[in-house]
């Protein structure tokens, strides 16, 4: 393949055209950080700190505890955890055994979890106490036989753990938010890991081509399926992300993990890339502007990955409080378009750079980013990462490239591209071309100098607050309501979350749809970010000649109605 990469001219000094081929598994990143920076703070969780030496020891003990529980090479282990130290430890402990991490949202309902758990066939689930009962409720539909409960409060500073025992409303509220009742037979993570010795060094670890992670995504069809990511994929994307930011200092950065680690974006930047450079990771169990600004005073961030609404809320809160954010040199935004106004406000407040990037779960996930320099370009997702190639292809004939400036389907190729979907060869064949290119399903335009802009989305997924919502999944729930005959779920622009989920329904014969009641009903059956924010009632839905509901027309009709 000819090395025609016009975008290389946009690379800042020090960013290489290509990265070295990964030679060791992802676990080597942690081993290297422990060896080089043992006394560096690895994790900060609401003030409780863990050094890299301590993290390495905790991972070794957790790996042995899981091994004694029957976890071995190739086994899938479900992690159902918010951001917390135990999440980081469990992630690397599973990998140390040559087993496969499967990340899940801890706020999922039993129905949402059951499909994924049954699909990958894990027998062991490490989960937050508040999610343990949900996992137990899937027992008859999945292979889970061992549930290991994690107490978030065990990772708090001692003074905060003691404060939780006080008979005060604030303490009671925090206890209720962090603790949960465990079903009978649940094992205790804290007990297991405290009692286990470190794993014997003679026990083999994973190879660079072994599967490291199954990350569920709706892809182009909307049906959640597991993207198979190898150690090679994840190491490559961590290294690509590292070299993309000239000036990152090994052992000298502080990353804020406000993005969820169970999401591919948060996992790569806040976990694998951060550990690769022995950064301090400040873990937030959820995004809260006040919590973030409290942490800034304690441990100022230098690198802040997020989504646009986070930057807007933090900027407003920081101005109100008078909090100094000038320690933040680098910020990276993804998952939804980044408004120019957000960039202007954030950069004025921090004095650092805020750039936009692009990726997908199937590519580990980051493939494209604006240069971390004055060459960044507003309205563009940027240029391809090192060792990454792109094509803008004719959507009807992907062997034909479109001329510069003409829209076409964005195709990608690089070491971060996955090997396929778990047990779905036909779905894999639909997106992975024989020569290694992946079809993104997004329509893009590339300028003469290699900058890319997304102009349309073939995939009809909705991105709200940085999370993917698959319309068919929401529609299946709403359609079960007795007053609903048909439904189309679409995303409409929202200043607060990027897009908001809207259900457009047709009433069942003889029924009247109570819109507010229907929204409440859906929220009881779906995670909060998936549930429709509002409902509209129409006489009929537009359909194609073969009877398929035309979601795009539904969306356009709603937008026209709002004008």
Automatic annotation (TrEMBL):
Residues 31-422 form the AMP-dependent synthetase/ligase domain. GO terms for molecular function: acid-thiol ligase activity. InterPro entries: AMP-bd_C (IPR025110), AMP-bd_C_sf (IPR045851), AMP-binding_CS (IPR020845), AMP-dep_synth/lig_dom (IPR000873), ANL_N_sf (IPR042099), ATP-dep_AMP-bd_enzyme (IPR050237). Pfam families: AMP-binding (PF00501), AMP-binding_C (PF13193). It comes from the Bacteria. Residues 473-548 form the AMP-binding enzyme C-terminal domain. Coiled coil: none annotated. This is Long-chain acyl-CoA synthetase. It comes from Paractinoplanes atraurantiacus.
